[in-house]
Write a sequence for this structure.
């Protein structure tokens, strides 16, 4: 091969690599100098930056969020390193000033809505300390935090940063958080079962939709996990959105991500 020649290959991990001959080998035996660039190839349906920012918190970080299921103009979120659950609402002229809807006695890590058997909507949130101690999920009733579920570290591999989600049947799911390897667990009648393990990336914020869990990998990607086949697929990647911490759906249509202080919708 002559100097300046290019070769394109696909690696075993599905990445696209471009090789360039920087220095020809010359007579045998010779030295071949090459340079290369590698990209990850998004699968069909993924995005690499086609997005709009819908809300930016005026100050401090935004780690976990959820839209009100019945009033999608209302956005609830937490810093994960503060005790408050905050709320804002989209109006005809922008977003309303942030207000605090609940203050806990320690850091609030994640939050989600769930309807009870009477159809009444309640907000749930978690507290957790990683590997420090068992965690807890609370339900807010009449502005009082009522313990809903203790998350014992012994049941989730010794580590939990507070991320959780509910499916349409009120089944609870837990994810390890910002640790590798990471797992997703399902809670059935009190027992916890590991249903998926990722040995290469983290599993942070999650959301359920149509038989699948979507989760952020605490870097630049969002994955979809089919709960029937256990197949993982990449649905979003953007190198400019480092530290994606959460994902959600607004009005059951728009896939939304939290990127620390930036929330972006596809």
């Amino acid at each position: 091969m002559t100097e300046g020649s290019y070769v394109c290959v696909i690696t075993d991990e599905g990445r696209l690599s471009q090789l360039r001959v920087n220095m020809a080998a010359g007579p045998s035996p010779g030295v071949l100098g090459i340079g290369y660039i590698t990209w990850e190839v998004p699968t069909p349906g993924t995005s690499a930056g086609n997005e709009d920012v819908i809300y930016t918190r005026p100050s401090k970080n935004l780690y976990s969020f959820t839209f009100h299921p019945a009033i999608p103009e209302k956005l609830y979120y937490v810093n994960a390193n503060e005790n408050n659950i905050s709320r804002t609402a989209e109006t005809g002229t922008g977003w309303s000033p942030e207000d605090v809807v609940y203050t806990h006695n320690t850091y609030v890590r994640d939050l989600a809505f769930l309807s009870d058997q009477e159809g009444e909507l309640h907000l749930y949130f978690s507290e957790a300390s990683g590997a420090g101690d068992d965690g807890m999920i609370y339900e807010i009733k009449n502005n009082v935090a009522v313990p809903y579920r203790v998350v014992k570290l012994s049941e989730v591999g010794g580590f939990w940063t507070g991320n959780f989600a509910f499916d349409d049947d009120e089944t609870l799911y837990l994810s390890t958080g910002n640790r590798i390897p990471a797992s997703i667990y399902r809670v059935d009648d009190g027992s916890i079962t590991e249903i998926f393990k990722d040995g290469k990336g983290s599993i942070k914020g999650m959301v359920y939709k149509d038989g699948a869990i979507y989760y952020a990998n605490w870097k630049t990607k969002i994955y979809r996990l089919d709960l029937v086949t256990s197949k993982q697929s990449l649905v979003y990647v953007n190198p400019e959105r480092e530290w994606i911490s959460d994902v959600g759906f607004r009005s059951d249509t728009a896939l939304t991500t939290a990127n620390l202080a930036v929330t972006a919708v596809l």
Remarks:
- The chain has two domains: 6-40, 52-265.
- The domain at 52-265 is CATH 2.120.10.30 (Neuraminidase).
- Confidence is low (pLDDT under 50) at residues 36-42, 260-266.
- Residues 46 and 181 are 24 Å apart (CA to CA).
